[in-house]
Every structure is written in structure tokens, then in C-alpha cells.
Amino acid sequence: MRAAWIDAGAGVAGDMLLGALTDAGAPLDAAQAAVEAVIPATVRLTAEQVTRAGLRATRVRVEPLRADQPHRTWQTIRELLDAASLAEPVRSRALAVFTRLAAAEARVHGVPADEVHFHEVGAWDSIADVVGVCAALHALGIERVTAGPVAVGSGRVRTAHGELPVPVPAVAELAAGWRVFAGGAGELATPTGVALVTALAAACEDLPPLRLHTTGVGAGSRDTPGRPNVVRVLAGAPADREEAPHDTGDPGGALLLEANVDDLDPRVWPGVLAALLEAGASDAWLTPILMKKGRPAHTLSVLARPDLAAALRVVVFRETSTLGVREHRVHKTALARGWAQVEVDGGSLPVKIGHQDGVIVQVTPEFDPAARLAARSGLPARTVLASAEHAAAARGLVPGAPVPPDLRRTQDEGAGPAIWAARWPAP
Fold it and tell me: How many Cβ atoms are within 10 Å of 78's Cβ, its own excluded?
């Protein structure tokens, strides 16, 4: 199961989409574990069968476990996601969604993105919705997401900022470039729901050719007579991919986004690259070039999964002075990868294991956690990295060695937070 299409023709909210993925077969425990890794002992996810205008559906409830829930900023949420023990596709997708949501709220309220407070939806339930949906997609093995037009509703709604027209400004900002329609009275699409659709979906399209494996129906809280208040997810194998003559080793494909920039302060570039990586890019780099009239410039290149293209475009336009981004598909062959946690002086570090056909090919300590540990311990980063390599070697994690059985299991399948393996194409 590699593709999913979201039917948001009756509207969309984060809990509705999570309900649809749960109904399609994603274990709710996987979503709960991922949310727990980000905000422990904060919310509980429960599922129940309901009917909406006579149609059966699954409703997922996000219940707070504490009364004093804080309203977190985007900067705080990003730090929580970075520090959490999450499978990398879950983390990168969640970062892409919140990046898009924060950019929209920042534009609407005229504040820097890092200062955006998610008070309207409540940080705790927006985190649960976003992280839960991303974990459910991972549990189902979904690599590519597309979605149809979104019903946004009509009329007016009362919010923390007073009475606002529907679609509310954040939804209108998030839906830029997407096909939308009213679809009924009231607020049918929430900012979190639209952020999930537009950040995770590679395209707005009618149902693509699929060899359908499963369908899920997620319910909203209201039961409106004559209009089922549901989101549907149809998941399966793309029909055109199944008919391909050979396997390229890159089932999901990759997208290369590029822009030529000749008028940006060079001191800004490190922050641009960091923002793109935080938004889920697999890689981002600069190439010096010479443009017309002999002007020195740079080509910004961003490699990413197609479903992250929309979120990454937002970052490129926000962080640089470019007026356009060109895109084209590329093929890459990537090693399957997993992570092992190794103990070193001062703490533990994740080590990335690249493997093929059951044999370890690459063993690489993750640099950022090593750098943070080095800063805390007062040791050089190279010393901490070397210690992690030695610790991995002591456990038999060296190139040419067989992949340990526990490394083949995913976190969702019970390997726990310390060791898990990647079932998805490497980013």
C-alpha cells in the first residue's frame, strides 16, 4: 500500500482525517505512541463507531489528560518534534504541516512565524492531530498522498479573535492554489485539517488510478442531516506504477526544486538551508553560478519527497528573494535504513544504519544529537562521534555485518523507542 487519496468534499479536520486513517487499518496505538513521544501524558486517543447522515464512520476523540494545557508557540512545537523519538517520516511530515500552518497564521496575524501561538486550535490537540495523522500514514506504508477539492463552508464563525467569515483567514491562506468550494453552511474545514491536506498531498486531483486495498471513513463531531460529515481515505497501489516494466529502486520518486538567486545577503543562506531541512527536505544545497551580465549568484537546490513540495515552496518563497521555483522529478536509489541507540560517555546517541539485502552497508552517528551532547559534556564533537562509532562497532554494527533481527522491526511493531528500522524509502 503506497498511495492514498483524501476525499475532503464534505470538509476536513485533523481528527476526521485521523479517524479515516484509523478506519482504513492504521492502529490507533501507533498514533498514540507517536503523540506520547512528543507530548507525554498529555492526551489520550480513543476511537468509536458512529453514523453520520446514515453513513458508518470512525470517530477519533482527542481527550486532554491535564486541565492546564499550555498554548505553545511554533518554535516550542518544533523543538518538541526535533527532540521526540519518532520515525523520520513521521517527524518530517509533522514538521512540514506545522511549518505550513505557522506560516499561514503568521501572515494572517502579522507576526513572525516562531512567535505564532496555536491558541485557536489548542497546541495539545493540534499536535495530537498532526502527529497522529503522520504516524497513521507511516503505519499504513503510505508514501504518496493526493487529495481532491476541499469543502470549506460558508457563513460566519466565532473564534478567539471574534466573529470571522468562513473560510476563516488561516484556512483561506492555507488553501491558496488548492481547489475549494463552499459545500454547505458553517465552518467545514479547520486550519489544522487544511494544513494536513495541503502539506502532505503532492497534488489536488480527482481520484487517481489505484488498485484499491482499503477505504477509511472518519467522522466529524456534528451529524448534519442529508450531508455526511465525514472525510474518506482511499488507499492502495497506483495502477500505473504496478504496470511499470521494472523496479527503479525508488518507488516513491523524488522531486528537485531549484531557484537561481542573485540578490540575497550571503549571510542569510545558512538559515535558509536549515529552514528547508527542518521543513522535511531530504537535502538542500547551494551551487555558485554566473548569471547574465556577469552577475554572481547561487542555485538553490532542494531534494524532497513529492508530498512535501508545497510546504517547501512556502519556505523558499518566504526565506529567499526568488520569484519562481522550477521543479522536476528525479530518480534515486536509497539504502533502507534504521536507527540504533548507542551508549557513550554523557548519554546515548542515535546511529543511522544503512543496509541492503540483510547486510549493513553504512554506519553513521547522527551529527546534531552528537553536537548537542558534546556541548553539554565539554568534549569536541569529533570525540563524541568517534565514541559513538566505537560503541556501534562493539555491538557488531559495522559494514559487512548482517543486520540484527531487532533492527528490522519498526517502532510501531514493538521494537520500542531505542531500536527501529525504516520500512519507507530513505529521505
Answer: 20
Convert the pLDDT of each residue in 38-94 to its tens digit: 999 999 999 999 999 999 999 999 999 987 777 788 888 999 999 999 988 899 999
Contact 28, 44 (CB under 8 A): no
What's the CA angle centered on 281, arms 321 and 379, to 5 degrees? 105
C-alpha dihedral, 107 to 74 to 131 to 228, nearest 10°: -40
d(Cα 87, Cα 85) in Å, to the nearest integer? 7
Domain ranges of the chain: 3-242, 254-330, 336-421
CA 359 to chain centre: 29
pTM as predicted: 0.60
Q: Which three cell numbers stand for residue 362?
A: 553504512
In the chain, what is the straight-line distance between the N-terminal and C-terminal CA atoms, in Å? 18
The 3 state secondary structure assigned to 147-160 is ECCEECEECEEEEC
Which grid cell sits at 21?
Answer: 486513517
**DSSP string of 260-285?**
EESSS-GGGHHHHHHHHHHTT-SEEE
Give dist(CA 219, CA 50) in Å, integer. 7
Separation of alpha carbons 290 and 329, rounded Å = 25
Which is nearest to 250 in space by CA: 308, 313, 328, 305?
A: 305
CATH of 336-421, one of 3.10.20, 2.30.30, 3.30.70, 2.60.120: 3.10.20
Look at residue 216 and give its three-state secondary structure: strand
Tell the residue number behind the cell numbers 527542518, with chain if given: 278
Q: Three-state SS for 74? A: helix
Write the CATH number of the domain with boundaries 254-330: 3.30.70.1380
